[in-house]
Design a protein that fits this description.
Shape: globular
CATH architecture: Alpha-Beta Barrel
Largest sheet: 8 strands, parallel
Keywords: Carbohydrate metabolism, Cellulose degradation, Glycosidase, Hydrolase, Polysaccharide degradation
Strand content: 5-15%
Pfam families: Glyco_hydro_1
Catalytic activity: Hydrolysis of terminal, non-reducing beta-D-glucosyl residues with release of beta-D-glucose
Number of domains: 1
GO molecular function, one term: beta-glucosidase activity
Helix content: 40-55%
Family: Belongs to the glycosyl hydrolase 1 family.
Order of helices and strands: EHHHEHHEHHEHHEEHHHEEEHEHEEEH
Length: 449
């Protein structure tokens, strides 16, 4: 596949999903620690308290990344490890100093996300992302991290997937902090985006550059050609895609009624939110099939994905292979998702990175040091083929990050779902590269050379 020579090949993770050590190094309590402690929230009562023990084993993990041949590693800084209680804890910063130094010594560019859903609990106790003050506290935290790591981090992402925090954390309560507010969760959209804009300014003031975002996006398909289904799909795309992209790239909300639902001096805030980005990151997993609300009730397979009484409902996508997580595998959706940015934003589209793409399969335990995972290889091969088509068609895509570098804690699904290129035996923390690890290593080598 003719990817440009400078194309950035990477792998990704997030702090709460891999680090563990939730009571060490000055780390404070996060909303995910609290959420996991509530009975019934997480599959099998699990938590990220130990996870993949990356906090203690980061040198081993960086060595695996080095041998993998990636040019960048996308990790997240744990906000409650750095500013757990309103004051800066140097021990937390020291850990990321060591991690970044280790990556640089291995020839791997650090790509840092500042918020991957782990809000410090003390901020949530004061209202969390429902309050404007959290956006300003986020900017303060960004300044601290930028001043310490800005001389070495190559890519910055203040936010990861704010749509998930709003929908699952505040609207439906399936993720931390477990609120069930329905449409009353909309202020969290504005405050996250405002926090992002303020953080971009704080990072630049600290001398950092090459700043983007990691936003969840996917193509939205109408369930039929009927006007009702077409309008439903358009409404869904507005809420899930454009509500989180238009303010960043166009400086406005995609619909007047959405702008009216936002708190604060919206017009002035949008000037901050739309602070120009150096690039834009897309996290892609699957398209969504959407129709008008069913008269006979929602499909049980998708019921509960969104608040009730909305003018649309997600439908089951059939006719495609699925991962063991039940997600349909549709590589063409990645090409379409990239294309829809050019269609909507034209020359306002920054350079793009695929900041996440991956799949969960319930891999077998290692036998003689090997974990065969042909479905994961097929997934990435097909998605890279689709991405190559997008680039050949003129899309300015500059990198691809596999989700995930290692198996990890998959939020409410616990440890059953395995996305990693490297198998983790959670009882012993032994790392075993899967066949997909070696496939990706060879693919990168062959593409570069």
């Amino acid at each position: 596949m003719p990817f440009p020579p400078e194309f950035l090949w990477g792998a990704a993770s997030s702090a709460y999903q891999v680090e563990g050590a939730v009571t060490e190094g000055g780390r404070g309590v996060s909303v995910w620690d609290t959420f996991c402690a509530e009975p019934g929230r997480i599959r099998d009562g699990q938590s990220g308290a130990v996870a993949a023990d990356h906090y203690h084993r980061y040198r081993e993990d960086v060595a695996l990344l080095r041998d993998l041949g990636v040019g960048a590693y996308r990790f997240s800084v744990a906000w409650p490890r750095v500013v757990p209680d309103g004051t800066v804890h140097s021990e937390g910063l020291d850990f990321y100093d060591r991690l970044v130094d280790e990556l640089c010594a291995a020839g791997i560019a650090p790509a840092a996300t500042l918020f991957h859903w782990d809000t410090p609990q003390y901020l949530e106790d004061n209202g969390g992302w429902l309050t404007r003050d959290t956006a300003h506290r986020f900017a303060d935290y960004a300044s601290v991290v930028g001043q310490r790591l800005g001389d070495r981090v190559r890519l910055w992402m203040p936010l990861n997937e704010p749509v998930v925090v709003t929908m699952f954390g505040y609207a439906l309560g399936n993720h931390a902090p477990g609120r069930n507010l329905g449409l009353a969760a909309l202020p969290t959209v504005h405050h996250q985006l405002l926090g992002h804009g303020l953080a971009v300014g704080a990072l630049r003031a600290a001398g950092c550059s090459n700043i983007g975002v990691a936003n969840h996006h996917g193509a939205v398909w109408a369930a039929s050609e009927s006007e009702a289904d077409t309008m439903a799909a358009r409404s869904y795309a507005t809420l899930v895609n454009w509500l989180f992209a238009d303010p960043l790239l166009l400086g406005r909300y995609p619909a007047p009624e959405l702008a009216a639902a936002m708190p604060g001096p919206v017009v002035e805030d949008l000037k901050v939110i739309s602070t120009p980005l150096d690039w834009y990151g897309i996290n892609y997993y699957q398209p969504t099939l959407v129709g008008a609300p069913s008269k006979n009730g929602s499909d049980p397979a998708v019921a509960g994905l969104l608040p009730p009484d909305l003018p649309f409902e997600p439908r089951r996508l059939s006719g495609y292979p699925t991962t063991d997580f039940g997600w349909p595998v549709i590589p063409e959706g990645l090409r379409e998702t990239v294309a829809m940015f050019a269609d909507r934003y034209g020359d306002a589209t920054p350079p793009l990175y695929i900041t996440e793409s991956g799949c969960s399969y319930h891999d077998p335990d290692p036998v003689d040091g090997r974990v065969p995972d042909p479905a994961r290889i097929a997934y990435h091969e097909a998605h890279l083929r689709a991405l190559e088509q997008a680039i050949t068609g003129g899309a300015d895509v500059r990198g691809y990050f596999v989700w995930a570098a290692t198996d990890n804690f998959e939020w409410a699904a616990g440890y059953r779902e395995r996305f990693g290129l490297v198998h983790i035996d959670y009882a012993t923390q032994k790392r075993t590269p899967k066949d997909s690890y070696y496939w990706y290593r060879d693919f990168i080598r062959d593409t570069i050379h």
